[in-house]
Each structure stands twice: as C-alpha cells, then as structure tokens.
Known about the structure:
Layout: H1 3-25, E1 30-40, E2 45-55, E3 60-69, H2 76-108, H3 110-122
Antiparallel strand pairs: 1-2, 2-3
Amino acid sequence: MGTTEKLKVAKEILATSFLNATERSIAHGMEFSYKSYGVEEDDFKGWIVDILVKEAGYGEKAIQQFKYHRPNNIDAKSMEYHVIVDVIGNLTQGALISWYEVAKMLASDKILQKAIIDEAKKDNISTDKSE
Length: 131
C-alpha cells in the first residue's frame, strides 16, 4: 500500500472518529472537527493539526494543536500521514488515561460507587449486582 492509500485510510479513520464524537455530543450542543494543514513560513516548516470544538451559541475554537516540524527529506503526503497517525495515537492515549483515572477513582470512592449503583437502579440500567 502506497503513501497516498495509507494517507486516505488514516484520514478516514480520524474523520470517522470525529463524526462519531460529534454524533454522541450533539445533544449537548457540541460539534468536533479537525484541520490538517502544511505550513511553510520562515520560522516554521511543518504540519499542524488543530482539534476544534463548536458549542451551541459559540464560535468554533481550537482546543488542541499538534505541531510537527518537517524534516527536509520527507514529502508532504508522507508527512501528513505520519502526523495523522501520531495524532490518532495521542487522542487514543488521552482517552485511555482519562478512563484509567476514572476507573481508579471509582475503585476507591465507595460513596461514588453507591451513587452510581443507585442511579443505575432508577434508570433500569443493568449492573453486575443482583437485586
């Protein structure tokens, strides 16, 4: 698989992730997107990926920016491919660390555990505890 095909697949994965995140957050008035672009300036030559959020009633704003310097020996498609793969990895790592921290909190906070179980019983959400 050549760089063009790999780049297309990577972009589809990233775009689908943002589409899914938006579909799950639209009820809260949030839309997510990203912009991926090359930069050729005197002080910076490389690639930038902006992670954007648009909340209902507010304009779009960047909530994270990934900035990569481009080596002289890499073409734009290869650079964008490597950047997008790294961004996917960074976003995944951030989600996994967040989930891990929440899991640690849940494992140690008995009051929070009880509140979650009580709330789940109200909403008919099944839990692994028999009633």
